[in-house]
Specification:
Elements: H1 5-60, H2 64-89, H3 93-113, H4 115-130, E1 138-141, E2 144-151, E3 155-159, E4 165-169, H5 170-174, E5 178-179, E6 186-195, H6 201-214, E7 225-231, E8 236-245, H7 249-269, E9 279-283
Antiparallel strand pairs: 1-2, 1-5, 2-3, 3-4, 6-8, 6-9, 7-8
Length: 297
């Protein structure tokens, strides 16, 4: 008994498509493998790598502004690795080799064109990890100074004390000396009071210390101190050393001005003479000597 005509037609069509179904099935399987590997890499990142990176960032004490770009970098690296493995697992080695060759050539060309950008990016990573300063810190570098307002992976924005906003390439802040006067939350000020040779050094020293102790802006610990540091032609130099707690630039200037004014008034009341323009210094322990007569901090 012969087969039905419909069945014979189906067999004939299947036989005709068989040479096409084999390669098509292979393409579908390879594409499925590729997608599965990429999705697995994504899940691995979300479930394992991202939380692990978060714990590492927590141990390093990174601020939120520092964590975001680093988290993006980690996600990009994981995705890139996942796509690379997916190409290999799906049997796209030939395409992967071609892609790698194109990527290498593009990387070389981009590297030459973006040397400064890359240099600033690497410097930004060092700023995030080493934390020489943070947002809100007062920093000084290469003759400039101001308050840090924002830190990115390419530039740092600093507001000067003249209210100018400077956009500073990160490389400029890692290739030179950067002072952070309040890195340890306190600032030491030094001011040399000059008195006449005929005046009482011990009494002048007591007045300088007393006025420091009476100031709310000056810390009791470390305690204020006075040293006789100079025997100049026209005056005896008494160097006062005081500490301010976590000051802004405005706090520092006001505290110093109020303190010096109070000492001057006491000197006038007790007939202690200031015969010569005084010189002033501000800074941390490394700044040992006064810089110049009448210098502004």
């Amino acid at each position: 008994m012969g087969a039905p005509a419909g069945a014979l037609g189906t067999v004939a069509v299947a036989g005709t498509l068989e040479p096409l179904l084999g390669p098509l099935t292979g393409i579908v399987v390879d594409a499925a493998i590729f997608l599965v590997v990429v999705v697995a890499a994504y899940v691995l990142h979300k479930a394992v790598i991202a939380p692990l990176a978060g714990r590492v960032f927590d141990r390093q004490g990174l601020d939120e502004h520092a964590r975001r770009p680093l988290q993006k970098i980690v996600a990009f690296v994981v995705l890139f690795a996942g796509v690379t493995v997916a190409f290999g697992a799906a049997g796209y080695q030939g395409f992967l080799r071609s892609l790698a060759t194109i990527a290498a050539a593009a990387t070389l060309a981009i590297g030459f064109a973006l040397q400064d950008v890359i240099k600033n990016f690497v410097a930004g990573v060092f700023i995030y990890t080493d934390k020489p300063f943070r947002i809100g810190d007062w920093i000084e570098w290469n003759g400039n100074s101001g308050i840090v307002e924002d830190i990115s992976l390419r530039v740092t924005r600093v507001r000067t004390f003249d209210n100018e906003l400077l956009t500073v390439p990160n490389h400029a802040l890692t290739s030179d000396v950067v002072k952070n006067p309040v890195a340890k939350k306190t600032l030491r000020l030094k001011f040399v009071f000059g008195i006449d040779y005929e005046d009482d050094v011990e009494r002048a020293t007591e007045i300088i210390v007393e006025e420091a102790e009476q100031s709310d802006a000056i810390l009791d610990d470390p305690a204020p101190s006075v040293r006789l540091t100079e025997l100049a032609d026209s005056y005896v130099g008494l160097q006062s050393r005081i500490w301010i707690d976590d000051p802004s630039r405005a706090d520092f200037v006001k505290a110093r001005a109020d303190y010096v004014k109070a000492v001057k008034q006491r000197f006038d009341e007790e007939d202690i003479t200031i015969p010569f323009p005084q010189r002033t210094v501000s800074g941390r322990d490394a700044w040992e000597e006064p810089a110049s007569f009448g210098g502004d901090a």
